[in-house]
């Protein structure tokens, strides 16, 4: 069992192989294989056949449904090279790496400046926390129970969880939660808790739910029923009712969107609960997970918004930390009722901790980033930022419409949906998220009027080039956001 | 849909509630509920009844199987408070937060210094990367296909993946992989790919596998067969054979441990493959996932180790990035064959990217940390560090035995297993991972001879206090690591 061990190096073989790979490397071979030739939209399914078309509304063309995938980066990656024996002496490698990083940093600055499409608040200053980067901080296992690993940040994590528990109105001794790696992990956790509570439950989610909900259904082998949406993007509760009544004998697990990904539509939580009750589902026969990725943190500060609170019969809420709060890396918060969590957890002696999380080892820096910002801004600070975002979003929508561009802004949202710009390079430059014929800008705290003006002027200028000839027309987006919001030649 | 929006603040209510919660808060209520009174070891199950006991070997006592859970941290968390209106003027809050962070930093330094039990290399210097903390770097979706979000680090990520692909001998156009959030995510991904390849496959894993494997089985609703282990901790292939033959009609998905969590035991990959073949499982009837959390990066540099390579019929390999490499936050690498990944992926237009990852949004900083260290150290640097770790592990084992303390060190491992120290405070101080009657020290690059000496001297001194009276004896650990490694009164 013991005894001296011989050690060898892998590098000579490896070096040889590296060269072979570099010579024979055929970039298209990497791209071509994994791409399916024709693609259906993940959360839409075969859209035309299922939905009744509104009269006079153009169908999205087939072409617009094929996904334009991003560039393959395999050929442009920064290869790792074996250090030369005299590297430490010459400093060549260090200089090379420093140059790569400096170039990368310039690129990040430029990309950060021209970003509009994803709901990430890029405006933060965590300089005070730079000192912590020297430590390997890991909150493995349960946030509330210390593990034997001492380099953790549970005291910050639990502080953050308490803050969200207050926001969503659940008592300290009644909730359980943790800081996740992203919104998806929150959704994966919420749906899993739902399934463990109702092993034979059926998952209901509107077709405009985030794709992680459907990923969860597949991972967990759950029956998933997709519910239609209104033009706003909200769940269509009359369709929900029909589908519930089709499956009255099975418990219901429902994903409620507190802001859909594409249109920022907020499902009507109260109407969802009412529909369940009217269909004969008592509170012990359903589990609601609220996917509050972005708006989970904005809604509490908007008066007319349906309130997300554990005083209503919901099972869990998740929100992203890198979105409205802003954080160097993705993270999120997941809160559920303690009564539900026992079904999920098992004691793991190795950690001296129960582990009801999905991930086990968990980034201990993220809770400190969140703790820092929540402490600095407080509820009042977020309220002000929400106000600003909604104001700026209205500005953008009004100016788009003023320029004759079809646009929609849901009442509770700062996501402005408009016609998809024709030019892929323009979409890339402003990092717009697109789906079918529409694109969106998510107005976050770092998106100022000045930035919107630059964007708008550029868009208007480009459009005058794209559509200078009469046979090239802006796309009709009535099928996506309704006739009243479309400004195509047919609907304007 | 549009129109002005009224905004309100949630803070007055919240503030009131915060006070109520603080007053009435009953810490035990939080701990007591989720803990089951008697606990079986998660990856062991009902151990005594299933395993034949070796003659003359004491059973672990019932007491030792109950988990000593860590302290509840809810009562000691760092609460987030609403900023006072004049905070910006007085600077009180900023001063308070700076003080909290400075105290926390001192605590991290002390905890980092006294850490031995978890396989994390705490010795790293990423000062050159501190400048990147200002950016919200997110590699959402597939690493090889750019999404529209421009603030990413795919060029670094793919460089790291290529490095591991070379290490594990798979061509650039034949693999797919990504940088995960931790070892668990790699395992969750590997097992999921296995299940998608063989939807009715049975999962086989040795009982000393990491608990994330059993978590995966439960999440994915898979039939999971636990296989016995040898005293070393390796999978017992004769038991594996019996269990395979019991289920000859179903494909096999096998988790192979490249270093178990507790004993650092390396499953014999070649024997596992041989066993499968002898039982009539052709290569299209099984899928092997190699959990190389720690040793996946050490083994390539140890001559006598069974080689982990895609030239053998394996489906995926995962390794942690925060373990042997060292990283401020948990991360990992997962590599699989491109032919397997199609079954898992679906095109998601929102990202302009396929998403075959578990998480969707992914930490873009982790790949840069890994890229930086791999570039600086290279294969040769890791080889040297592996050598040092194995040497120091032997030193520790020899000194433990010299002091009359039962200890084991597997041939290919730097994990030294020994009797569990009696005192919980001692275990906490050195952050030892414990299971039943054993504890372990994982000798990582930051664990020097000097640190081991301090630890050893302290342990020997404490033992002379713990065991000064004759009726208090060190635990028998023969059931855990074999008679020959036990130094209890019966076996020494």
UniProtKB/TrEMBL annotation, chains A, B:
State the Gene Ontology BP annotations: carboxylic acid metabolic process
Q: Which cofactor does it need?
A: pyridoxal 5'-phosphate
Which GO terms of the molecular function aspect are on file? Answer: carboxy-lyase activity; pyridoxal phosphate binding
This protein's record includes keyword Metal-binding = no
Q: Does the keyword Lyase apply?
A: yes
**Positions of modified residues (N6-(pyridoxal phosphate)lysine):** 323
Q: Which reaction does it catalyse?
A: L-serine + H(+) = ethanolamine + CO2
Which Gene3D superfamilies does UniProt cross-reference here? Aspartate Aminotransferase, domain 1 (3.90.1150.10), Type I PLP-dependent aspartate aminotransferase-like (Major domain) (3.40.640.10)
Q: Where is this region: Disordered?
A: 41-65
**Keywords annotated in UniProt:** Decarboxylase, Lyase, Pyridoxal phosphate
PANTHER family per the record? PTHR46101, SERINE DECARBOXYLASE
Q: Which family does it belong to?
A: Belongs to the group II decarboxylase family.
Q: What is this protein called?
A: Serine decarboxylase-like
- Specify the species: Durio zibethinus
